[in-house]
Amino acid sequence: MTTPPQVPPSAPVPSLSQPSAATTVPDVIDLPSGNELDASAAAELQGAQQTRLIVVAGPVGAGKTTLITTLHDLFQTGKIGGYAFSWSRTLPAFERRCHLSRIASERSVPDTERTKFGDVRYLHIQISGPELPDNLLDLLFTDVSGESFELARDSIAECQRLHFLKVADDFLLLIDCEKIIDRKKRNQVIHDATLLLRSCLDSGMLGASCFVDVLWTKYDFVAAAGNGEHASFLEKATQEFQKQFSSRVGKLSFRRVAARPADVDGLEFGYGLPELLQEWATESPRDRTMDLLPDEELGSRESEKFLQRHFSSESDSK
Ligand SMILES: Nc1nc2c(ncn2[C@@H]2O[C@H](COP(=O)(O)OP(=O)(O)OP(=O)(O)O)[C@@H](O)[C@H]2O)c(=O)[nH]1
Ligand SMILES: [Mg+2]
To answer: Ligand 1: distance of its center to the CA of 110 in Å?
Structure first.
């Protein structure tokens, strides 16, 4: 039988919010559960430190969850570029999402579990590196099912339900190259991605300073097809995006990404992700606080009341 750790009454209690004077100090250490964060917990985290919110958007199966979990996996083996993993508030949540891709799950082909349709969840990674303010940067990623974005693409009202868009620093628009190499599907895929970005902007949900990265995900499919036709199709689509959106967002970039590529020459695991991380670490769309809680979800907890009081004047003036 293991003995519970003895904690002196004066030991600090790791917590995202400061305990009030009336709070009694518990006799066990209150370790974070490590579950993914809901909007309220994400707001508390943001209250504690400056955090960059990265919205990972795209239709079902585009590779959103795999992109985030691959970052976590890459950090298991060392630095990415010059940046080291510092800590995560959501480690077990990462591990659960990585499970199907691991040998332990006894699958012949690595896979990612479909994200369930429902509320937004957030995954957190703190990185450290010499160029960062205080040598640290907190990254908060949304993990939302593709259905939510498909609804938002087709309806401004549905788009307005995705309240986290309002405080996004980065909007990653994932476009699935497995579909791009299918000549019957590819025009529709580009059209759908254009509609989603337009819906987010026309609804006023995505700010004009937000950085938008169009990610050609599963790029291994284009690389494996090996003919220049797909690459020139992507080039034309890039020009079309630039024409429509470059003046409407803070920055518009395009990247080839293969978070978990099949065996294709020249494409390593996490292809394209170090460059993304470098961008987050070195360029910032704005300096501001964010309020992740939609007004109707502001509850009665003290931390939520604090956030409401603290940020309401700022959001009123937007
Ligand atoms: N070949 C290849 N497959 C990938 C890559 N990235 C992801 N996949 C696969 O694509 C499938 C869908 O990936 P997910 O990350 O679950 O996609 P998602 O966008 O989160 O999907 P929803 O949660 O359903 O919206 C999984 O089977 C992944 O293994 C890649 O770079 N190359
Ligand atoms: Mg997912």
So the answer is: 10
Domains in the chain with CATH codes: 39-302 (3.40.50.300)
**CA gap 124, 51 in Å, rounded:** 9
| Distances 263 to 59, 109, 268 between C-alpha atoms, Å | 24, 12, 8
Of 261 and 266, more confident: 261
Of 3-12, 81-90, 183-192, 254-263, the poorest mean pLDDT is in: 3-12
Per-residue confidence (pLDDT) for residue 49, from 0 to 100: 66
Q: Is the CB of 112 under 6 A from ligand 1?
A: yes
Cα gap 293→95, rounded to integer Å? 26
273, 71 Cβ separation under 8 angstroms = yes
Query: Encoding tokens for residue 46?
Result: 């943001």
Query: How many other C-beta atoms can be found within 10 angstroms of the C-beta atom of residue 222?
Result: 22
Query: Tens of pLDDT along 23-35?
Result: 343 444 445 566 7
* Beta strands at 136-143 and 121-128: parallel, antiparallel or unpaired: antiparallel
Q: Return d(Cα 152, Cα 197) in angstroms, integer.
A: 9
CB neighbourhood size of 73 (10 A): 18
- Determine the atom of ligand 1 nearest the C-alpha atom of 115: 23
Would you give the end-to-end CA distance of the chain in angstroms? Answer: 57
Query: Which residue did the predictor score with more confidence, 14 or 225?
Result: 225
Q: Considering only CA atoms, which residue is closest to atom 7 of ligand 1?
A: 63
Nearest listed ligand to the Cα of residue 176: 1
Q: Is the CB of 218 under 6 A from ligand 1?
A: yes
Hey, what amino acid is at 274? P
Which-ligand-closest: CA of 112?
1
Helix axes 302-316, 39-48, angle to 10 degrees: 80
Which among 162, 180, 179 has a CA at the least distance from the CA of 171? 162
CA of 42 to the centre of ligand 1 (A): 25
